[in-house]
Design brief:
Layout (H helix, E strand, L loop, with lengths): L1 H25 L6 H22 L8 H22 L3 H21 L10 H35 L5 H5 L3 H29 L9 H24 L3 H29 L5
Helix pairs in contact: 1-2, 1-4, 2-3, 2-4, 3-4, 3-5, 4-5, 5-7, 5-9, 7-8, 8-9
Length: 265
């Protein structure tokens, strides 16, 4: 009962924060970024308490629990990004999605028990989650970049466009995030090779292959940026392609096994 109450509070705060951040995107209203981000920070802290309470302070990687955990990581990363590079539109997309995934895990998902893990696997999973969180924000930025470029090309200068950061700032932040995510994904693959014992027995072959392909996609994008100055549509397409591969790697096999075949990983 306490968990459900906390979940409702966190969901309301996430949605309130998203609404405050969306205000200047929809009209000429003054921004409420600082207040909205403070509200989102409270929501993130309550979300952390819910994860600890529902899953007994352990890493629960069952499908819906993992979705809620990833959403928590992405929301936390969104707050950190906004500390140095204010991009309010990130929260407009991320916070409602986090509220939805928290609601599903809290009210609709069946109860689960976390599986025991050695510290090496916990390290591997933690690095993977942070990498995924960074790439998730990069994917949202890539979408914003595409929308901005299209609007500028068609001379659509609405209030929402003026509320977004300059195109060059969005692009610079995008590649900084991709670089950080690429380094963490590299570390994820290395720790996986060192610590994971049985790829086939743990149904991790598809995850590993898809993660390696995603690593190659992001590596190609960074090389193209450094060597040929890739930007714009090339950057957007490769970022979204790499993110789609990571989504399949993290949740594709898990969804099939748990939701369709009713087998745990």
């Amino acid at each position: 009962m306490v968990i459900h109450t906390l979940a409702l509070v966190a969901i309301a705060l996430y949605l309130a924060a998203a609404g405050g951040l969306a205000r200047p995107l929809l009209s000429a209203s003054p921004p409420l970024n600082r207040l909205s981000l403070s509200v989102a920070a409270v929501a993130v802290m309550i979300h952390a308490a819910i994860l600890l309470g529902m899953h007994r302070g352990a890493l629960d990687l069952h499908f819906f629990a993992a979705l809620s955990l990833v959403a928590f990581v992405v929301s936390t990363m969104t707050l950190l990004v906004n500390l140095s590079r204010p991009v309010a539109a990130l929260g407009v997309i991320v916070f409602p999605l986090t509220a939805l995934l928290l609601a599903v895990d809290s009210f609709l998902a069946p109860p689960t028990l976390p599986q025991p893990m050695d510290w090496q696997i916990k390290l591997h999973v933690t690095v993977a989650l942070v990498a995924f969180g960074i790439f998730s924000i990069a994917a949202v930025l890539a979408i914003l970049l595409a929308v901005q470029e299209r609007a500028l090309r068609h001379h659509q200068f609405g209030p929402w466009l003026r509320a977004l950061p300059p195109l060059t700032l969005t692009e610079t932040l995008l590649f900084r995030l991709i670089t950080a995510g690429f380094l963490l994904l590299t570390l994820t693959l290395i720790t996986g090779a060192l610590f994971v014992q049985n790829l086939f027995g743990q149904h991790l072959v598809h995850k590993t292959v898809l993660s390696i392909i995603a690593w190659l996609v992001f590596g190609t994008l960074l090389c193209g940026r450094w060597r040929y100055g890739w930007r714009g549509r090339q950057a957007v397409n490769l970022t979204l392609a790499g993110m789609a591969l990571l989504l399949l790697a993290l949740f594709g096999t898990k969804a099939v096994l748990e939701l369709i075949l009713h087998r745990s990983i």
